[in-house]
Every structure is written in C-alpha cells, then in structure tokens.
Amino acid sequence: MVHFLHPLLCPRTFVLPDAQEDARGRSVLQEEASPCSLFSICLDVLIASLEQWCSKRSDGTLCLPEHWCLPCEIADQFLERMASQGKVTDRTVSIFQGKQTNLKLINIQRAKLSPSAFTKAFCHHKLVEVDAASVDSELPASDIIHALQSNAWIQKNLQCLRLDSTSVPQNSRLQALGHFTGLHTLSVANVSFWNEDLVSISQLPKLENLDISNTLVTNISALLTCKDQLRSLTMHYLKCLTMTSPQILAVFRQLTCLLHLDISDHRQLRSDLAFHLLRQKDILPNLVSLDISGGTDITDEAVESFLQQRPEMQFVGLLSTDAGYSNFFMEKQGLKVAGGANMSQISEALSQYRNRSCFVKEALYRLFTETLSLRVVLPATLKLVAIGMRSHPLDLPVQFTASACVLNLTRENLAKGMPVRLLSEVICLLFKAMKNFPYYQQLQKNCLLSLTSSRILTDVPFDRFNAAKLAMRWVCRRENPKMQTMAVSITSILALKLLPEEMEQLQEELIMTIKELLTIVRQKTAEKVDDVTLLFTLKALWNLTDESPLACKYFIENEGLAVIIQVLETFSMSVIQVKVLGLLHVTIQNWPSSQCKMSALVSYRSFKSFSPLLGNFSQPEVQLWALWAMHHVCSKNPSKYCKLLVEEGGLQLVCDIQEHGQANAQVRQMAASILENFRMHFTSLPETPTAPVPSLT
C-alpha cells in the first residue's frame, strides 16, 4: 500500500495522477489503496456466513437470531451488499421479515425473487426508496407495484421508485403508479410503459424527476400536466415517438421549470430533434444540463450558441456527435462535457452513461485510441472501465473493447502504479468475459495479455485456480501460436501459486497440459530452435512438477525424461540447461526413481556436457543431479558408461569433487557412491583417460 502512495517508491517510467490536474484519479488511487472499512468487512463476513448465524423456518427460509436488531442505516446497506454479491434469494431475503430489521431504502438490482418473497420481506417496512432495476423476470413490475401498494404508508410516502429494465406481462399497464402520491422520482427506462401510463403518473402532485427512456410512449403531451413541477426529464432513445420535432419542442417550451433534459439517441436513428432544439432561443431558460449525444448534424457553433445564451449550464452530452472539439469546450469553466474529443470528455461519458451499452461501447473505443501509447497511471479511468464491464457482462462489443482498454491502462509498468484492489476487480471481470465468450479469440487474447503482467500474476488476489484452468486449456488449443505461448507463460507462474490439493483437482487439465508442453519441447528440439517459447515451456514443466507427484507421474509416463535428456544433448545454452536440470531434480525428488523405469528411458552418448555442471559449486542441486545421472547409468550399464566416464575425464572430476572443500555433504556422498560403484565392478581403475581432464574451476 505504501508503494502506491509514497512518491519515492514509484517506478520512474510512469507518472502518478497529479492532485490538482487529476483530482479524481488521485482520489481513486487513495481510496482503492486504502483498506476496506471495518463496517464493510463485517457485512461481508455476515453475508458469507449467513447460514451459520441464522435458524430455519419450516419452509426452509432463513431467520435472524431473536436477539438481533438491525437499524435502518445498517439494514439498508446489508441488503444492498447482499444484492451486489448475488446473495438475495427467496431463501435469504426472508431475514428482513418481521420487526428485527428496519428498512427505508431497498436496492435489489438484478436480484431473482418471487413476488411472494418480495412482499413478505419488504412491504411491511416504511420504505421511502425502492430500486428494483433489472430484477429477474420472475418479479415483474406490475407485481412490485401491487405489493408496494398494499401498504398504505408506502403508497403515500414512497419518494423514489426505479423499475428500469423490469418485465411487464403482455397487455398489462402500470397505471397504478399514479396512486403513489409521494413520488418525486420515477424511472421506467427500458420498460413496456405506454401513453396511458404516462397520463397517469403525470398527475402525481410531487413528481419532479422522470425517466421514460426506451419506452413505448408515442406522445409526451401528458407532461404538460406536471409542467410547473418537473425538474428533470430523461427520454433517451424514445424510438416510438410519433410527434414531429416542432410538436415536441412545443411541449418543451412550456416546461419552464426544467433543469435537466436528456434527448440523447442512437446515432443510427438519425434523430434531428437536437438539431432543431439548438436553434431555439426562447426555450428552457433555466436549463443547466442538456444531453444530445447521438444526435445528427450537431456542430460546435450551434452548441456554443445555445450554451452562451444559458451561462448557468453545467453539463452537455455530445458523445457520438460531431461537436465538442473546439477550444470553447476545453476552456469554459464549470462545464462538464461527455464526449469523445479528449480524455476528460471520455471519462465523463463513461461516468454518465454507465448503464447505456451503446454509449459505453463508443466511449471505450475512444478511450482505446487515446491510450495506445499511455505513460500516465489513470486509476479513475480504469475504475470507470470496470464499472462499464460490470454493468454489461453479456454485451460482447463492450467486453471486447473494455478488455483492450484494460490492456492499454495496465501494460508494462503502469500496473505497478494501480491499487491492488482495483486490479483484482478488473482481473475478475476479465475472467468473466473469457467465460462468457469462450470462442471470441481476440477477447481471449486481450485478457491473456493482461495476465502476462508479473505485477498482476504475483501481487494481485484473484481466483488463481480457475485462472490456471483457463490458461491450461489455452495451452492445449493450437489455434494461435502466440496465444499458446502466452498461456504457457501464465501457466508457469500460476503453477507456483496453487496448493497441492488444487493441483490434484486439475487432473484432466494437468495431463493434457503436460502432454502438450512435451510436444512443444519435442518440436523445438527437433528443429533446434531455442526461442522464448522453449524457455517458457521448460519453465512451465519445472513449475508444474514442483511439489506435485501427480504432475511428475504424468511427466514420466509421457516419456518426459527422454525428451529432456534430448534437450540437454541438443542445446548448450546455460539458461536452458538450468531449467532442464531443475526440472529433472524436481521430478526425481517427487517421483521415486524406482517407479521411473529410468533404464529404458535414459541414455547418453557423452558426459562432456556434465563437466561445467560438476564445477558449479554455487548450485549444489545442479551438481547433485549431474552426479546422480552419472551414478544411475553407470550402475545400470557399467561396462559402457564407466569406461566412457574415464575416457572423457569424468572420473577424475568425481574424485576432485569428493575432496573439494566447497562441496556440500550430499554432493560428496553422491561422488563417493560413484567411486564405490567403480570398485564393485573393477578390481583396478581403468587406464588413464585419453581426453584432457577438465578443471573444476
């Protein structure tokens, strides 16, 4: 954590966010680098062990201990955190029945509940805010409304209701919303919401904020009923409108209290409503926020003129338009712009449009092009990318473009400046994307590339077991050599992070991976290609077999020893020899030599390559392996290998090692075993070697 916040400990090849120029970035950096609050940790512990704390009713639902009592400040956040973790079900939500909890604000986004469970858990509370956006279709909007309406207090005092993306049974209407007389905020975006429903809610006496985006409304004239109170109107992608632009503008002209107007659209529809609005001078005098993203024929000049007539403007949405590129938008103080002209506008777009996949995709594409050669750490931007990914898990364009942005934002040393918790969240989202789109190769490649960061693989907490499983499967797919090499490298590092029992759970993947790795080594050896793929593969084999008897078994059963010996005889590079010898030393340790059938697998044409290994006193394990290999073959075939050892000067080296002061006890003992083997088979030592005796130094 200190590494992220202390300027002297940060690598010099990247720049951390400046507190003044990038206040949001600095804030996110400090927030994400700080530990979670004790309150949040306690809630997570309670949620994780809910079954242990609770008793069960006769119907199997959970019940809090009798002496527990959760005030609204705790109960509201407890429920919201359960929903965010996908833990709100008919069985668990029953803990909010009765009087032990006091709820005011309920957030059950994306939860899967039955109408009866919803009613029993929530409708006896004095609720002032309900967010049921994107709940499962098992709980339609009409049933939510009916349940809430059953409580007279809620019907009178509910202030905020969000039903975005909820289902509505065919031929059903939501006119009952007009009975919630206390409502000041209503959102029904992406819902089957009709003209008659709009007529009903427009008569609500306190309605100030309304979102009817992507509904079935064809005529907005009913809004004139609430013209003296409506402060915010969002009608993004209102594709069913049959009114002409002049007719719509005539309604807007009477909404004199309106502060926020969103008429953004999908660019493909080529709506000209924004084009005509910008040319009006006597309309919406109190407006401070205007969103016209996706509008056609929008120019800098037209937007500038509109804003200059309204100096109090604080926000304008211009993404997917041709506007936002003049100096006016860069220099005007106090004006936020959601657009695509620069990083500031792109970040604002990602923040404003997190729930609109069409704009998230566009903003991510602009972000990708802006960050291709990035050298500045942007934690706030990475967090916005994560929010976009989390909001649209099944949208391929969003996930693919986001994965490319993650790669740009964390490449090379940039990952070192990112908070660990933020990186952890992003990596988990990448794995979800890989799981949801297993056959989209470029997405898979982006995710694997992000994982090649040593910072992420070693320091960041994430599900390494499933990560290793995915990487191993990619090792065995031969569709793309570069991706296979990446997967081999990732597997190599992750193998060291897995517990022995986790390796045992990967039996299927493990045997396939070892077979494929040995195939790669055979191919590289036959072609005499000592490239990075060979090095990664040898390292992966070494790490997979380390402390894993099961992996060693698969390695030996697939003729791994013979393959590795061939590598030793083919390549003289020390970096390759070290990996090979490490692999063999590990294999021998973890899989007893009596089970290896070494006599059928190992043979040498020469011991010359062993000479530098015997003199390596800084790595006794290397000496030990070389001596063990000599001892093994000399014991199995003394007439051949003892003679070869003497002829090449190897015997003299063994004698020297036994007497060398720097050799450790195990090495000297193995050297003594070789000499004893000679005495057993020869009454006297063979003739003087014909080859010069190499020096141990």
Automatic annotation (TrEMBL):
Residue ranges occupied by any Protein zer-1 homolog-like C-terminal domain in the UniProt entry: 388-584
Pfam families found in the cross-reference section: ZER1-like_2nd (PF22964)
Primary gene name: Zyg11a
Family under the similarity heading: Belongs to the zyg-11 family.
SUPFAM superfamilies reported for this sequence: ARM repeat (SSF48371), RNI-like (SSF52047)
Protein name listed in UniProt: Protein zyg-11 homolog A isoform X2
Keywords: Ubl conjugation pathway
InterPro entries found in the cross-reference section: ARM-like, ARM-type_fold, LRR_dom_sf, ZER1-like_C, Zyg-11_UBL_adapter
